[in-house]
Amino acid sequence: MSEMSLSRGSRLRWAIADGWTITRRDLSHWARQPAQVIVGLLFPVMIVLMFGYLFGGGMVIPGGGDYREFLMPGMFAMTMVFGIETTFTAVSGDVAKGVTDRFRSMPMASSAVVAGRSAADMLNSVLGLAVMIACGLAVGWRWHEGPGPALMAVGLLLLLRFALLWMGIWLGLVIKSPEAVMAVQILVWPLGFLSNTFASPATMPGWLGAIAEWNPMSATVSAARELFGNPGWGGDSWAAQHAPLMAVVWPLLLLAVFFPLSVRRYRHLNR
């Protein structure tokens, strides 16, 4: 084995070890402040109960079907999308407090901070999705296409979260102010609600319905409903007819944009 191969291998092991150190640091923060994690997990559960039991009786699903089975895939995706706020707050908080600069001055892999942050947030997202699935099962939601398609649906949901996570990291490095979370909410809430989660794009004005159908979240929601065997809105547009494909393409496009932007911004943080 050449010296160059050994050098690359040692750098990779170094980067993985440093990234895992940052991940454990973020997880230890959550362990010391469990109330923040619990509130974050209970909020989407409250939304499910509100929509499922307060508004569900007035909702009619095209072709019939149980409203809560229709609702849950959309709520799974909403949980993934709203995770941007958690990522942004943590990253911008570290930047504002000088923690990120301290990490950058240490002899550690330059990728460790953002990689560790992404790993910690993905673990948190897996936990949040597990809680939401348990909540769905408790209110009567089921998957009907077998474990294979159900796991594929979960994979698409986590892929969306992973792509949006890097958007949150980039925003946190650019804005640098935890108090600006309101600005991120202005971005996230339209992304979540201007979709096919609660209303059919066919009932919206033409231009607004087109935006909703081409929303990355709508693609993931439609694909998840299809893979879980849950009722959905359908639709005649190209985006609606190819939702599983777009549920992969949209996150990959977001990753192609925001991953290099995040890495570049981190490396030039004080310039």
Number of helices: 11
DSSP E strands, number: 0
What is Rg? 20 Å
Question: What is the distance, rounded to the nearest whole angstrom, between the alpha carbons of the first and last residues?
Answer: 39 Å
Overall tally of structural domains: 1
Helix content range? over 70%
Give a short account of the largest sheet: none
Characterise the protein shown here.
The chain is mostly helical and 271 residues long. It has one domain (3-267). It has helices at residues 3-32, 34-55, 67-96, 99-105, 112-138, 147-175, 181-193, 206-213, 216-228, 238-241, 243-267. α3 packs antiparallel against α5 (112-138), α3 (67-96) packs across α9 and α9 packs across α11. The longest helix has 30 residues, at 3-32. It is elongated. The two termini are 39 Å apart.
Summarize the model shown:
The protein has 271 residues and is an all-alpha fold. The chain is built from 11 helices and no strands.
Question: Strands, helices and their partners?
Answer:
Blueprint: H1 3-32, H2 34-55, H3 67-96, H4 99-105, H5 112-138, H6 147-175, H7 181-193, H8 206-213, H9 216-228, H10 238-241, H11 243-267
